[in-house]
UniProtKB/TrEMBL annotation, chain A:
Sorted UniProt keywords: Protein transport, Transport
Native organism: Haplochromis burtoni
Bilayer topology annotation: Peripheral membrane protein
Protein name stated in the entry: VPS33B late endosome and lysosome associated
Domain of life: Eukaryota
From TrEMBL, chain B:
Any single Gene Ontology cellular-component annotation: late endosome membrane
Subcellular location: Late endosome membrane; Lysosome membrane
Gene Ontology molecular-function annotations: actin binding
Topological category with respect to the lipid bilayer: Peripheral membrane protein
Name the record gives this protein: Vacuolar protein sorting-associated protein 16 homolog
Membrane-crossing segments per the record: none
InterPro entries referenced in this protein's UniProt entry, alphabetically: VPS16 (IPR016534), Vps16_C (IPR006925), Vps16_C_sf (IPR038132), Vps16_N (IPR006926)
Function field: Plays a role in vesicle-mediated protein trafficking to lysosomal compartments including the endocytic membrane transport and autophagic pathways. Believed to act as a core component of the putative HOPS and CORVET endosomal tethering complexes.
UniProt keyword list: Endosome, Lysosome, Membrane, Protein transport, Transport
Organism: Haplochromis burtoni (Burton's mouthbrooder)
Length: 616, 834
C-alpha cells in the first residue's frame, strides 16, 4: 500500500521480558510444591498459559498430569493437587467440594491454589466458610500482561467489562493499576498520562499509589506517554461491523489469544489448522490492517511474487540451486502455506460477507452513523428481528440505533423490544435490563432538553458546582450524545466525495470511510493538543472524568524524542482489532508508535454476549 | 599533644590508659555509697536507687535516672517493694527486680510500662540475688532464691521461665555466680566454697578449671567477659585464675596477694586484644591484672562503679567518669615514644610541615622509600577513630589528609567515613547528650541503633541532623525519627487535639514512610480517639485508615474510607466485618449508602447467597431488581408450577415498579408456557420453554396451522413477522400450493420480493417467477434479477429510467447478452441527455 508513512517511527520496547518474567514466577510457585503434582487449569487460562510455558516446561517442574477445570469431580490419583485459577468464587467453591469430598474417606492430599493475577478476599472468605482454609496453601501468580504481538498486550480478563461496567464491581481496577505499574517499572517512567473515564481515573490513582509505595529507580524510559480510556466512553466503535482483515477474521473465526483456528472450509482439507496471527506471519502482517476490499488484490500480487521466486530456480546451476534450497526454499514454502491459508480464509469470508445481506447491513450501519433515513433503518432492524437472522446481530443493531439516536422513542422501544422477545425468548427481558443499565439500549426520556438546561445552569454557577450538577444529571440518564460528538469531532466524513479505500485518507478507512472511531479520534486529538484544552465540550458530552498529568519524576521530556513518540494506550473494558488498525494508521501518519494494552480483545459479539443474561 | 603517652601505663608489652569522659553533672549528696546502681553498657543511662533496703514507709527511697554524663532524666520516689537489683535492657528500659520476684519495667523517663513475675515459688522464698544479662536473644534475668534455687528468663520480651535443677549441698546463696551463654544455651556457673558447678536446664555438673587446685582456696569472685568467652575466678587466697569460659584452657594464674574480696571484678579487653586484663576494685584501690602477671595500680578516692564495655571498662565516681582501656595497637604505634611506624612518621612530617620546616620532606621521603605512605595514612585515620580528644583527632586526620596528597589511586572512603563518624560521635559524646561511645562500640552498635537510642532519649533534632548529615535514606532515617516524635507528641496530655494534630501535620508533612495511621493508632492507645480520627484524616492512603477505624468501632467511616481507597478487598473486609457486627437491617442500611460496597456485596450474594440478595432488594424497595431476581429464579425451577408462581411474583413486583411493559411480557410468557404445556400434553410437541417465534415455527412445521394462527392472534404477533414465518415455513416444506394460497389471502405486508427471494433460496425458480409480477415497481428490477431474468430486469429498469438500476443490471450482464447491453446503454444515454 502506498502509505505516506513517516520513516522515522521509533522502535518498540521489547515486551518478551513480560513473558519471561511470568514464566519464572510460575516456575518458582510450582517449585514451592515439591514433588509430582497434578495441575488443574482454569479453562480460559489454557491459551494464555500456553503462550508463557508449554507442557514440557511444566513437566520439567514435576507437573504430572494437566487437567482443565470443568467443575466436575476429579479423578486424579496424585497426592498433590495444584489449581491454577482466576479468582472466581465458582471455581473456589468447586475446589472446596473437591477437598471436602476427599475428606470423607479420609484421603489426605496437599492442595495448592495459585490465583492469577491476584487473589481476592472474597475467595478466601469462601475457603474459610467451607472450612478448608487450613487445608490449602494459597499463592498469587502476578501474571498481569500477556504480549499478543509486538504492539498488543492483553490482560486476558474479559470479565473486566461485565464486572466493572455492568455490575459496578470495581475489584479489577486495582489489577489494572498493577498492570500499569508493572509496565511502568519495566519501561517507565512515563512523561505524561492522559485518560478519560471513571475507571481509568481510578486505575490511574491506584497505579500512582503503587508508585509512591515502591522505590523509585532512575532508568531510561522506553515509553513516552500513556492514554487510559474506558470502554464505556465509546460503545459505537465496537458495535460496528469490522471490515478490516484482522477484525473480520476475529468477527468470523474468533481469534483467541492471538491464535485462530481455521476450519475445513478454509484449509480445503478435512482438518482444522491453528494459526498464530501476529507480525511474524509475513503475509498476515501485510494485510491485517487492510480494508477487506483490497485484500484479494494483495494476495494475488503476493502469489505472483511467490511464483517468480519459485521460478528463479529455472536456469540455475547446481551451486545456485543448492543455496536456493538451503536458504530460500524453506521461507518460500512457509510463505506459500500461509498464503494459501489466508486466501482460503478470504474466500470463506467472501462467501459469508459479500452477499447482498451484508451490503445492506453495512448500509444500514452507515445510515445510522450518519443519522439519515432512521425510519428505514428501524424497519430494516424489524425485519432482521422478524426473520431471526441472528440474535446477537439484531441486538447489535438495536444498540447502535439507540446510541446514535440518543435513545429510542418510547413507541419504537416497546415494539422492537416486544418483537425481539417474541423472536428470541422472553428471558431476554433481563438482557434488556442489563443493556439499559449500561445505557446501550434506552428509551428516550421525555425531558430531552436536559443537555440544554444543564449547560445553562453550568454557565450560571461556578465550575465546581457545575461539575457536581453534571454528575447529578448524568446519573439521571446515561446518554451517549453521539450525534453532537460526531459533529464536534467530525467523526463522519463528508459523503459527497468517493473514498478510495486503497489510499486511506484518515482512520475512517477501517469502516469503509463512513466513520472515524471515536476512541481513536479522542486519542489523536489529545495527543495533538497535549491535553484536553479545547475539548471541554467533548468531555462534557462524554460525562467527564478526563485527566492529563505530567510525570512526577520530571523526566527531561525534550531531547529523547524517539521515546516521546511511543504511546501506550490502555483500553479498560476491551478494544477491537479495528481500533488497533486505526491506531496503527494514525501512528504511521503522525510518526507515533502505539502500544495497545487492553483488558481483553473484544468485538461486537463478545461485548453483547457478556451482557446476555446468562442464567446465573 | 606531646604528653599523650603521659597517661599510659605499660602492662606486659601493651599499654593501658585512662581517658577522662565527663565531669559528672549530677550532684549526689552521699556519693554512690549505699546505693543500688545500674549503668548500661554502650554509654547507656545510669539508674540509682538510694538505700534500697530502707523499709520504713515514711521515707521512700528515691529512684533516679541519669544520662551517662550525669544529666538528670527522671527522678521519682520508689513506692513498690524492696528492690534487689536494677538493670537495663537492650532497648534502654529499666528493670527493677523486687525481693518478691516481681520485675517492674520502666522506660527511660521513669514511666511504668509493665511488670511480670519470676515465678510463684519466688514469692515465698524471696530473691536473694539477681543478675541482668544480655545475649543474642535479648535481655535476660537470672535470680537465686533463699531456697538456693535458680530461675532464668532468657528474653524478657518473650518470657519463658526456667527453673534450674537443685545444686547439691548448696545452702543459702552461693559464694558467687555468673550467667554464661554458650552454644546457644544459657547456663549458670556458680561456686560453693572451693567447688565449681555448671547449672543448665537439666543438670548440675561439678567442673574443675584446669590449673586451679582446691588448695588455692574458695572461689569468692568470678567474672565473665563481655563476649562470654573468657572467665576470671578469684579465690580467697588472692589467686586470680583466667581462662576460657568453656573451662577447657587456662590463660594465666596470677597471685594478687589480696585476700579481701573485691567490690567488683571485670574483664578489660578489646577486640584483638594483645594484653587482656582483669580489673579488680576495692574501696581505695583499682588493680589491673594482666594475663602476663604484671599489674597496674590506681588509687581511688571515691566509691566507684565499674561498667564493662566491649573495649574497656568505664569507671564512674560521684564526680567524674573515666574510660580504662588497652591502648589500641595503632595508637601505640603512632604515639609510642620513638616509634618509627609509618603513621608516627607521617604525623611528625605533618607537624614539621605546619612549622614550615623542610624536615617534613625528609620524613615523607623516609616513608615513601619504604613505600608505606598508604599504610601511614591508614594508620592515622584509624588512630583518629580511637582517640577521644578532638584535638588529637584533628591532628591525626590532618596528617592523614596531608599524606593523602602524595598518593595517587588512594581510596578516600575510609577517610571520609571516619571523618563523618567522628563528627557524629563527638556530637553524641557531648555532655548534654551523654552517650560516651567509642568508635569500636559505635561500629558494633550500628548507626541504626544509635539513632534509635537518640530517639528513645527524645533528642529528635539531633537524630534528624545525624540522619541528614549521614544521608541515610528517609525510610530508615528522618521518617523513622519523625514517626517516634509524633507517637510521643500524641501522648502530651497538656495539648489540645487540634494543636497536636496541627503540630504533627506540620512537622511530618508527607515524609515518605511515615504512616499517619500508626501515629493515630498510638493516639487511640492513649485514649485519644478524637485525635486519632483527626490524624487519620492526614493519611493519604485510605486503605491504611480502615483497620484502625474498625478497631475504633467507626465502621461507617471505615467503610467509606475503604471505598475511597479503591481496594475492593478492603471494602470486602469491612463489609464482612459489618455483616457480623451489625444486625441485618442496619447492615443493609449502611450498604445502601455505599453503592460500591453494595454492588460488591451483591456480586458476592449472587454467587453465594441468593436469599440474601432477595432481602437486599426487599430492603431497598427495588421492585425492578426483585422482579428480575424472580425471573432468574424461574429459569432454575424445573417444575412448571413453580416456574409460574415465580413468574407471578415477578409480575407483582414489576407492577410495583410500574414497569407495564415487563408486566405484560411476563404475563405473556406465563400464558405461553401454559399454552405450550397444553399442546405438549395433547400432541407431544415438545414446546415448553421455546420462544414464541420458535413455538410458532415448530407448530407450522408440524402442520398445526390452526394453533399457530391462534398464537398469532392471541399474542398480537405483528403481521409482518407472521407472514415471514409462514412464508419461510411453507417454502421449506415445499408446499407451493399452500404458499400461493397464502400469498393471495390478503395483500402481503412484507411485499412480494420476499416471496421471490425465499423461493429462490429454496431453489424453485418456477415458483419464484409467479410472484415477480406482484412486486412493487421499485423492487421490480431486483426481483427480475433474483430470478435471473435479465430481459425483464432491463425492461423494468428502462421503464423506471433509473440510472443506478440500469447500472446494476449491466453489471450482471455477460458478453452473450449484447442485445440487452445495447438497449440499456442506449437508455442510459437518453437519461443522461436529459
Amino acid at each position: 500500500m502506498a502509505h505516506s508513512a513517516r520513516r522515522d517511527s521509533p522502535e518498540l520496547p521489547d515486551f518478551s521480558i513480560l513473558k519471561r518474567l511470568a514464566r519464572d514466577q510460575l516456575i518458582y510457585l510450582l517449585e514451592q510444591l515439591p514433588g509430582k503434582k497434578d495441575l488443574f487449569i482454569e479453562a480460559d487460562l489454557m491459551s494464555p498459559l500456553d503462550r508463557i510455558a508449554n507442557v514440557s516446561t511444566l513437566k520439567q517442574h514435576e507437573v504430572d498430569k494437566l487437567y482443565k477445570v470443568e467443575h466436575k469431580p476429579v479423578i486424579s490419583t496424585s497426592d498433590q493437587l495444584c489449581f491454577l485459577i482466576r479468582p472466581r468464587i465458582q471455581t473456589v467453591k468447586w475446589i472446596c467440594d473437591v477437598v471436602n469430598t476427599d475428606k470423607v474417606p479420609g484421603k489426605s492430599r496437599r492442595y495448592k491454589i495459585i490465583f492469577t493475577p491476584q487473589k481476592f478476599y472474597a475467595c478466601e472468605a469462601v475457603l474459610e466458610e467451607q472450612g478448608i482454609f487450613g487445608d490449602v496453601s494459597i499463592d498469587e501468580w502476578p501474571f498481569y500482561l500477556l504480549p499478543l504481538d509486538d504492539d498488543i498486550i492483553s490482560m486476558e480478563l474479559p470479565e473486566f467489562f461485565q464486572d466493572n461496567f455492568l455490575a459496578g464491581d470495581q475489584r479489577w481496577v486495582r489489577t489494572a493499576g498493577s498492570a500499569l505499574h508493572l509496565l511502568y517499572s519495566l519501561y517507565g517512567p512515563f512523561s505524561k498520562v492522559y485518560g478519560i473515564g471513571r475507571c481509568s481515573k481510578m486505575a490511574y490513582e491506584s497505579w500512582r499509589e503503587q508508585v509512591e509505595e515502591g522505590e523509585q529507580k532512575a532508568r531510561q524510559a522506553e515509553i513516552g506517554n500513556v492514554f487510559l480510556i474506558d470502554r464505556d466512553v465509546d460503545f459505537v466503535t465496537p458495535l460496528c461491523s469490522q471490515v478490516v482483515y484482522e477484525g473480520l477474521v476475529d468477527d468470523i473465526f474468533r481469534i483467541k489469544c492471538g491464535c485462530v483456528e481455521f476450519g475445513p472450509d478454509v484449509t480445503a482439507s478435512d482438518k482444522s489448522v491453528k494459526v498464530m496471527l501476529n507480525s511474524h506471519d509475513k503475509v498476515f502482517s501485510e494485510i491485517r490492517n487492510e480494508h477487506f476490499s483490497n485484500v484479494f488484490g494483495f494476495l494475488s500480487q503476493k502469489a505472483r511474487n511467490l511464483q517468480t521466486a519459485y521460478d528463479k530456480r529455472r536456469g540455475m546451476d547446481i551451486k545456485q540451486m543448492k543455496t536456493f534450497v538451503s536458504e530460500e526454499l524453506k521461507g518460500l514454502k512457509q510463505e506459500h502455506r500461509l498464503l494459501s491459508l489466508h486466501i482460503g480464509a478470504s474466500e470463506s469470508i467472501m462467501k459469508k460477507k459479500t452477499k447482498q445481506d451484508f451490503q445492506e447491513l453495512l448500509k444500514t450501519e452507515h445510515l445510522l452513523l450518519e443519522g439519515f433515513e432512521i425510519r428505514e433503518c428501524i424497519s430494516y432492524i424489524e425485519e432482521h428481528i422478524n426473520r431471526q437472522v441472528s440474535m446477537i446481530e439484531s441486538l447489535r443493531l438495536l444498540c447502535l440505533l439507540s446510541i446514535t439516536e440518543n435513545g429510542l422513542l418510547p413507541k419504537d422501544y416497546r415494539s422492537l423490544k416486544a418483537q425481539y422477545l417474541q423472536s428470541y425468548g422472553v428471558d431476554h427481558l433481563l438482557t434488556f435490563s442489563n443493556l439499559r443499565q449500561l445505557g446501550l439500549l434506552v428509551e428516550q426520556q421525555p425531558g430531552e432538553t436536559l443537555t440544554v438546561m444543564e449547560s445553562k445552569v453550568g454557565k450560571l454557577v461556578n465550575d465546581k458546582t457545575a461539575g457536581k450538577l453534571t454528575d447529578a444529571f448524568s446519573s439521571l440518564a446515561k446518554k451517549s450524545n453521539f450525534r453532537a460528538l460526531s459533529r464536534k469531532l467530525n467523526l463522519v466524513p463528508k459523503t459527497d466525495e468517493e473514498y478510495d479505500l486503497r489510499v486511506p485518507r484518515d482512520m475512517a478507512y477501517i469502516f469503509s470511510g463512513a466513520y472515524i472511531p471515536l476512541s481513536c479520534k479522542l486519542i489523536e486529538q489529545v495527543l495533538e493538543r497535549d491535553g484536553w484544552t479545547g475539548l471541554e465540550e467533548v468531555t462534557r458530552l462524554l460525562n467527564g472524568h478526563e485527566f492529563a498529568v505530567t510525570g512526577s519524576s520530571g523526566v527531561d521530556s525534550r531531547g529523547k524524542n524517539d521515546t516521546q513518540r511511543i504511546i501506550l494506550v490502555m483500553f479498560l473494558g476491551g478494544c477491537t482489532y479495528s481500533e488497533i488498525s486505526a491506531l496503527r494508521f494514525l501512528g504511521r501518519e503522525k510518526g507515533y508508535k502505539f502500544i495497545v494494552v487492553t483488558t481483553a480483545i473484544t468485538n461486537s459479539s463478545r461485548l453483547l454476549e457478556a451482557l446476555l443474561d446468562n442464567h446465573v | 599533644m606531646a604528653f599523650i603517652t603521659a597517661s599510659w601505663n605499660p602492662l606486659g608489652d601493651a599499654f593501658y590508659r585512662k581517658t577522662d569522659l565527663y565531669e559528672m553533672s549530677w550532684s549526689l549528696r552521699d556519693g554512690l555509697r549505699d546505693s543500688l546502681v545500674a549503668a548500661a553498657p554502650y554509654g547507656g543511662p545510669i539508674a540509682l536507687l538510694r538505700e534500697p533496703q530502707r523499709r520504713s514507709p515514711s521515707s521512700r527511697p528515691q529512684l533516679e535516672i541519669y544520662s551517662a554524663s550525669g544529666g538528670t532524666i527522671a527522678s521519682f520516689p520508689w513506692k513498690s517493694g524492696p528492690v534487689v537489683q536494677l538493670g537495663w535492657t537492650v532497648s534502654d528500659e529499666l528493670l527493677c527486680i523486687q525481693e518478691d520476684g516481681t520485675v517492674l519495667i520502666y522506660d527511660l523517663f521513669g514511666s511504668f510500662k509493665r511488670h511480670f513475675s519470676m515465678g510463684q515459688e519466688v514469692v515465698q522464698s524471696q530473691v536473694m540475688e539477681a543478675k541482668v544479662f544480655h545475649s543474642p536473644y535479648g535481655t535476660g534475668i537470672a535470680i537465686v532464691t533463699s531456697s538456693s534455687r535458680f530461675t532464668l528468663a532468657t528474653n524478657i520480651d518473650d518470657l519463658k521461665l526456667r527453673r534450674l535443677p537443685e545444686v547439691p549441698g548448696l545452702q543459702g546463696k552461693p559464694s558467687c555466680w555468673v550467667v554464661l551463654t554458650q552454644d546457644r544455651q544459657t547456663k549458670v556457673l556458680l561456686s560453693n566454697g572451693p567447688e565449681l558447678f555448671i547449672l543448665d536446664n537439666t543438670s548440675c555438673t561439678v567442673v574443675c578449671p584446669p590449673g586451679l587446685s582446691p588448695q588455692d582456696g574458695n572461689i569468692v569472685h568470678m567474672s565473665v567477659s563481655f563476649s562470654y568467652k573468657y572467665l576470671a575466678l578469684l579465690t580467697d587466697s588472692g589467686h586470680l585464675w583466667t581462662g576460657l569460659s568453656t573451662l577447657q584452657e587456662k590463660l594465666s594464674d596470677v597471685d594478687t596477694k589480696k585476700t579481701m574480696a573485691p567490690k567488683q571484678m571485670l574483664w578489660c579487653r578489646r577486640p584483638k586484644s594483645q594484653q587482656p586484663s582483669v580489673v579488680l576494685m576495692w574501696d581505695r584501690l583499682l588493680l589491673v591484672v594482666g594475663v602476663c602477671n604484671e599489674t597496674i595500680q590506681y588509687p581511688i578516692e571515691d566509691p566507684c562503679v565499674l561498667v564493662g564495655e566491649m573495649d574497656g571498662v568505664r569507671i564512674i565516681s560521684s564526680s567524674n567518669q573515666e574510660l580504662l582501656q588497652e591502648v589500641p595497637l595503632v595508637c601505640q604505634d603512632i604515639f609510642k615514644i620513638a616509634s618509627m611506624a609509618p603513621g608516627a612518621l607521617l604525623l611528625e612530617a605533618h607537624r614539621e610541615y605546619e612549622k614550615s620546616s623542610q624536615k617534613a620532606d625528609e620524613y615523607l621521603r623516609e616513608i615513601k622509600e619504604q613505600s608505606m605512605l598508604g599504610e601511614a595514612v591508614r594508620q592515622c585515620v584509624e588512630a583518629a577513630g580511637h582517640e577521644y580528644d578532638t584535638n588529637t583527632q584533628k591532628s591525626l586526620m590532618r596528617a592523614a589528609s596531608f599524606g593523602k596528597c602524595f598518593l595517587t589511586d588512594f581510596s578516600p572512603d575510609q577517610f571520609v567515613t571516619t571523618c563523618r563518624e567522628l563528627r557524629v560521635l563527638n556530637a553524641v559524646r557531648d555532655s548534654s547528650v551523654g552517650l560516651p561511645l567509642t568508635h569500636t562500640q559505635f561500629k558494633q552498635l550500628t548507626l541504626q541503633v544509635l539513632i534509635d537510642r537518640l530517639v528513645y532519649r527524645q533528642f529528635y533534632p539531633l537524630a534528624i541532623e545525624v540522619c541528614r548529615y549521614l544521608k541515610i535514606p528517609d525510610y530508615q532515617g528522618v521518617s523513622r525519627v519523625l514517626k517516634h516524635w509524633a507517637s510521643c507528641k500524641v501522648q502530651q496530655k497538656d495539648l489540645t487535639d487540634d494543636a497536636i494534630a496541627r503540630a504533627v501535620c506540620m512537622k511530618v508533612g508527607d515524609s515518605p514512610g511515615v504512616s499517619y495511621s500508626d501515629i493515630a493508632a498510638k493516639a487511640y492507645e492513649c485514649g485519644r480517639a478524637e485525635l486519632a480520627i483527626k490524624l487519620l484524616d492526614f493519611e493519604a492512603r485510605s486503605g491504611e485508615q480502615v483497620p484502625l477505624l474498625l478497631k475504633m468501632k467507626r465502621s461507617q467511616l471505615a467503610l467509606s474510607k475503604a471505598v475511597e481507597s479503591g481496594d475492593t478487598d478492603l471494602v470486602y473486609t469491612v463489609v464482612s466485618y459489618l455483616k457480623n457486627e451489625m444486625n441485618r437491617g442496619d447492615f443493609f442500611m449502611t450498604l445502601r449508602n455505599q453503592p460500591v460496597a453494595l454492588s460488591l456485596y451483591r456480586q458476592f450474594c449472587k454467587l453465594q447467597e441468593q436469599e440474601t440478595l432477595k432481602d437486599l432488594y426487599n430492603q431497598d424497595d427495588d421492585h425492578q431488581e426483585l422482579a428480575n431476581y424472580y425471573v432468574t429464579a424461574s429459569y432454575r425451577e424445573k417444575r412448571l408450577e413453580g416456574r409460574l408462581s415465580l413468574l407471578q411474583s415477578a409480575v407483582d413486583e414489576y407492577n410495583k415498579a410500574k414497569n407495564e411493559f415487563a408486566v405484560k411480557t411476563t404475563e405473556d410468557e406465563m400464558r405461553l408456557l401454559r399454552f405450550q404445556r397444553k399442546l405438549d400434553d395433547e400432541k407431544g410437541a415438545g414446546l415448553l420453554g421455546l420462544s414464541l417465534q420458535v413455538t410458532m415455527e415448530t407448530l407450522l412445521s408440524l402442520g398445526l396451522h390452526k394453533q399457530a394462527e391462534q398464537l398469532y392472534k392471541d399474542f398480537r404477533v405483528p403481521d409482518k413477522r407472521y407472514w415471514w414465518l409462514k412464508l419461510k415455513s411453507l417454502a421449506e416444506k415445499e408446499e407451493w400450493d399452500e404458499l400461493e394460497k397464502f400469498s393471495k389471502s390478503k395483500k402481503s405486508p412484507i411485499g412480494y420480493l420476499a416471496f421471490v427471494e425465499v423461493c429462490i433460496k429454496c431453489n424453485n425458480k418456477y415458483e419464484a417467477k409467479k410472484y415477480v409480477s406482484k412486486v412493487t415497481p421499485e423492487q421490480k428490477v431486483k426481483a427480475h434479477l433474483a430470478v435471473g431474468d435479465l430481459e425483464g430486469a432491463a425492461d423494468a429498469a428502462i421503464e423506471r429510467r433509473n440510472e443506478a438500476e440500469i447500472g446494476a443490471v449491466l453489471s450482471r450482464c455477460s458478453a452473450s447478452n449484447s442485445l440487452v447491453i445495447e438497449r440499456l446503454n442506449r437508455a442510459r444515454a437518453a437519461i443522461a441527455k436529459k
